[in-house]
Amino acid sequence: MRVTMIGTGYVGLVSGACFADFGHEVVCVDKDRSKIEKLEKGEIPIYEPGLEALVAENVKAGRLSFSLDPAASTPKADAVFIAVGTPSRRGDGFADLSYVHKAAEEIAEVMDGYTVVVTKSTVPVGTGTEVEEIIRRARPDADFSVVSNPEFLREGAAIEDFKRPDRVIVGAEDERAQKIMRELYRPLYLNETPIVFTNRATSELIKYASNAFLATKITFINEMADLCEKVGANVQEVARGIGLDGRIGPKFLHAGPGYGGSCFPKDTLALVRTAQVHHSPTKIVEAVVEINDARKKKMAARVIEACGGALEGKTAAVLGLTFKPNTDDMRDAPSLDIVPALQAAGAHVRAFDPVGMREAEGLLKDVEYVDGPYKTLDGADVVVIVTEWDEFRALDLERVKSLMKAPVMVDLRNIYRPDEMAEAGIDYYSIGRPR
Ligand code: UGA
């Protein structure tokens, strides 16, 4: 199959490289000249484990290439994917669809012969119909189908998620489009991955409902963690105890500082707005959005409390800045709320993140960025674990204690056990567990 992928952001680049690896001929298109030039030189603009090698391999095999011009590959393509950004619109939280609309216009200009136009970007219900109308208006005689095929990959595990997904969702109502989609996902089909064919609106909603459900699960366990702290219970054991019930499941029950990233905050908000517009408000998701925003803001108070109620003149060592490990993505990261709040309380903040520091520098000011966890801790009054990078999981606790001015640790990801910290003589605070 021949594929054009419009947009070389996270989803576009990973999907393009994986489709090429499935054996298809893929051209990834982007307007950003510097991005395309970099990709042509084998440089990957995002941090994603395994992506650089996958791109290099498929470029070498002649299955993957990059272009500034959608006209170069679209006329011959069997499927053209729209994988452009859908950020929150400033002010009202709706998904901003201007890039999607623009892509539809561009595709309409150059498509030739039967083409399946696929929205892979996360788009509100009804967007497929809008894309269809835009193309139909520009090219009344064109032969095409518009399909919804949302992506469920996680940053940091994107390739694995694409190649071994729990399911593939395809919103395609006509036989011809279904056939092409089945062919594109052929290797997964052979692996017996469920490929769910449904109508377009259902497929579009499945994406938002999935993300909102996962965000709700996290928010639920975070609230349970708060309650655990009040009643002397242990949230990790609560999560295990409920997760063993097959109807609940063990995943996404890890309590922490609140979810962040480029998807959950944006998608929950967009779902809230869509539901309001259709006079069918989703009160649960509205509450989730509100609780999570408040939670991220409240995290710094834990640090202040751990330091005896005052941070003035103290040094806080922050380990991890990105919204989760294995990514350089800082979008809606809890650190963006925590660090300024520590500074506002009078702390000097010293921070380290294994790959996110360059991104962080532009967003978090007056922070002393240092190289490595032990340099961060040196002379600090408190250490705060904000992101659970693997390299923070096995710190030499004797060294930690000897380097710090006061051995106080606030672990917002529960990567240590309270008993090992007590034994090491570190004053340890975590989430939802007895001290
Ligand atoms: C999320 C979904 O997991 C993907 O399925 C989806 O495709 C993607 O959004 C998207 O819509 O593009 P991602 O944002 O990369 O993926 O990250 P997650 O691993 O889901 O984590 C999101 C946030 O939830 C992080 O801040 C993480 O720390 C937090 N989280 C996750 C918890 O606090 N507890 C958990 O148990 C799990």
UniProtKB/TrEMBL annotation:
InterPro entries: 6-PGluconate_DH-like_C_sf, NAD(P)-bd_dom_sf, UDP-Glc/GDP-Man, UDP-Glc/GDP-Man_DH_C, UDP-Glc/GDP-Man_DH_C_sf, UDP-Glc/GDP-Man_DH_dimer, UDP-Glc/GDP-Man_DH_N, UDPglc_DH_bac. Pathway: Nucleotide-sugar biosynthesis; UDP-alpha-D-glucuronate biosynthesis; UDP-alpha-D-glucuronate from UDP-alpha-D-glucose: step 1/1. Residues 317-418 form the UDP-glucose/GDP-mannose dehydrogenase C-terminal domain. Its EC number is 1.1.1.22. NAD(+) binds at D30, K35, T86, T122, E155, K266, R331. Keywords: NAD, Oxidoreductase. It catalyses: UDP-alpha-D-glucose + 2 NAD(+) + H2O = UDP-alpha-D-glucuronate + 2 NADH + 3 H(+). The active site is at C263 (nucleophile). It is an enzyme of class 1 (oxidoreductase). Substrate binds at F152, L153, R154, E155, K207, F252, L253, H254, A255, G256, G260, K324. Belongs to the UDP-glucose/GDP-mannose dehydrogenase family. This is UDP-glucose 6-dehydrogenase. It comes from Hyphococcus luteus.
